[in-house]
# Entry
Amino acid sequence: DVQLVESRGGLVQPVGSLILSCAASGFTFSKIYMSWSRQAPGKELEWVEGIEAGGDSRRYAKFVNGKFTISRDNAKSMLYLQLSSLKTEDTAMYYCAEGHTGVRGQGTLVTVSS
# Structure
């Protein structure tokens, strides 16, 4: 079974940074497209950024505007999302997702507040 475990969210001040992690298991991570999505309080889930299996091609939502960077370590079956220049509106539960089944983890909460 696909298992995804996000971690390293937390409370951060505006303009701060965080690096989220996602540990993957139960599938051949190195061959699968992966992505991050987020859901802010009271809002719908929105796609943030995705990365191809080899790690050489990334796409991101327009609102990312260069602030967030997705990366992966296929040897460790790990996915990352580097968040920078955070704003209060970036407060959300962040989820990683496996590209074939769409399975997501339980999420990690990022709260941007002073």
Remarks:
- The radius of gyration is 13 Å.
- Residues 38 and 46 are 5 Å apart (CA to CA).
- Strands lie at 3-7, 10-12, 18-25, 34-39, 46-51, 58-60, 68-73, 78-83, 92-98, 108-112.
- The chain has a mean pLDDT of 96.
